[in-house]
Amino acid sequence: MNRPEIHTMEELSVAIGVSRPTLSRYFQDPTSVSRSSVEKIERGLTRVEYVPNFFATRMNRKSTGIIGVIIPYLNDLFFTQLLESVERAAMHAGFTVITQCSHSDPLTESRAVETLLSMSVDGAIVTPLGEQTDLRAYARLKAKLPFVLMDSRPKTLMDVDYVGSDHLQATGAIVDYLCRVGPPPVFLAMPPGNFNAGERERAYRKRMTELGHEPVVFAQTQIDDLSHYEEHGLAALGAAFSKGQYLDQSILCVNDRVAIGALRAAAQYGLEPGAQRRGGLRIAGHDDYPLCPFTVPALTTVAQNVGAIGQAAIERLIYKMQNRNLPLEQEVRLIDSELKIRQSA
Amino acid sequence: MNRPEIHTMEELSVAIGVSRPTLSRYFQDPTSVSRSSVEKIERGLTRVEYVPNFFATRMNRKSTGIIGVIIPYLNDLFFTQLLESVERAAMHAGFTVITQCSHSDPLTESRAVETLLSMSVDGAIVTPLGEQTDLRAYARLKAKLPFVLMDSRPKTLMDVDYVGSDHLQATGAIVDYLCRVGPPPVFLAMPPGNFNAGERERAYRKRMTELGHEPVVFAQTQIDDLSHYEEHGLAALGAAFSKGQYLDQSILCVNDRVAIGALRAAAQYGLEPGAQRRGGLRIAGHDDYPLCPFTVPALTTVAQNVGAIGQAAIERLIYKMQNRNLPLEQEVRLIDSELKIRQSA
DNA sequence: AAGAATTTTTTACACGCGTTAAGACTAAGC
DNA sequence: GCTTAGTCTTAACGCGTGTAAAAAATTCTT
């Protein structure tokens, strides 16, 4: 079953008996070639081992057919869900996706930008690291190719297309719910540095004020590595409990990973958060991390619409790619989240 | 701050005042150029906007400097940890990493293989989907370039280099532990289809037999989608509990995600698994999923040494790439896992 | 200062394919 | 049989860079 290996289109053309330009057109768009040739070529391809050279095909085209994606890190199921949704949408639209991960490191992130630029991708979808992000890299991206920010955006890049969740809607919804079923919630935040965490905190304060309640935010912790969300939640809430605080309050966590740490803290203090229980402690999260239905108790949260965010980002990017000449206005697309009421609140 | 854009090395050479071949050598290896030229070039590069064309640079080289990675899906923190470790090791060794995700789909997986082949990657590290994998794609990979399987391997590809965990050691260690602190464990397995799940089940049976115990395996569930591990664990153990089975047994789960579902089932039945508790129910997992320390109760498990696996895979791959002419013998590298005793068992 | 050693420039070809223009061929339509 | 449109082949150039050989320039040695 060892078919002869063929390395160039030239060789292939003599092997099949079709001219090279015809082959070239066939590989780019089979419908641009007559039916009889298509059959001839496809019959030939079964007898022979050949894959077109990726670099050579992309180098000499006006458009490379590649969409670049940069995500900050992988060890978070929220980003992997987002990435999956983006890759699916891009592949569906016929693009090759090149994903680069920053691995929480600004230098790696800058290198990722350079890689995408050097590959002349048609466009890029980027979720920045956070405040450590090297903005010069983004400035170069913006100057050279269509790109859209996804999920979070630095304050210094507010003039770029953006697709993400509507924090006012999402946080508002869960604040409303918590106020409906119990005392006004306390907010378990993150130390400053994370864009979305800040946005959510602001959204919390805003909604609480609108409802006539006093916002209460706490985030004290000794955890230095900000990527250890669960530890942060555990430490911060544990510290509060140890001072006798919030033992019978509603606690809204800035995201589900922090909430998972918070659930753990509650368990350590023998508390069982949940609307059904006496005692009054409630814990809610934000994001609908895939494990939420399986925590003990199952975590009440707000589900970001990951599928819609990824798809909208790709749609907008493709639109920009197809209209590079036109002077487009900035588009900010905020997507609604959905309340997921489970047991913990 | 807008530096003039330069698109080709030719232009760059006139802008800087250095010949193009010298620039070419500089970009590939700055030490191959005299100090004075290096300084001249680097001074020039600060005044000008230029990135070498990725495709053009790779097309005409004997080695592309790219390592391809294929992973089955992203929505599992174990794979993302593994991927991170591989990418880190590869980047450290000076390679560009191109990662392709199969998204649980054999067709996407085959396409990923084609993509890597068409990019003439120097080598590939692959974690196959499972039994649905299209083995022809792998046969082509094997024929054309150095590659090593990681984490799991199809029975039909046993002659390929492999790096993964030593299931006998890992499962043996947790079986031993469970037998030491309580009754011999029951094994909560997966429906057939997943290589590692099968290996672990066999390892469990073997160790139990060696210890003189009767192995007991159960995996009944209505869950059709095998990727929903937590649901499977919840459903299977829930069903057992509802029949009054295993309520005071030790339960070894095939992996941590199943164990998280099992913990949930226990909670639903008002049971609190853990060595410290009365009642006898114990639940243990396998993998050391990053959330294990934060489950309620914290999950006792066996930690796969993800860092070592990724690094060993890259090391072996690079060795094979550097010795493509030599007829190398197959190498199977099994790495030890470490018991993580927490609360659940 | 002359010669040797190193580095750079010049020149030219290569990589594999995209792309174009001109001509040759084929299958219709009259 | 002829024209016409559609499709193909031939021939040639281009993409941006790698790479090799020879000539030129620079630096180092003695």
Describe what you observe in this structure.
2 copies of one chain form a homodimer. By secondary structure, chain A is α/β, with parallel strands linked by helices. Helices cover 43% and strands 13% of the residues of chain A. The first copy, chain A, has 12 helices and 12 strands. The first copy, chain A, has a 6-stranded parallel sheet with strand order 2-1-3-4-5-11. In chain A, strands 7-6-8-9 form a 4-stranded parallel sheet, with helices on both faces. The first copy, chain A, starts with 8 loop residues before the first helix and ends in a 5-residue tail after the last strand. The interface between A and B is large, with 50 and 50 residues.
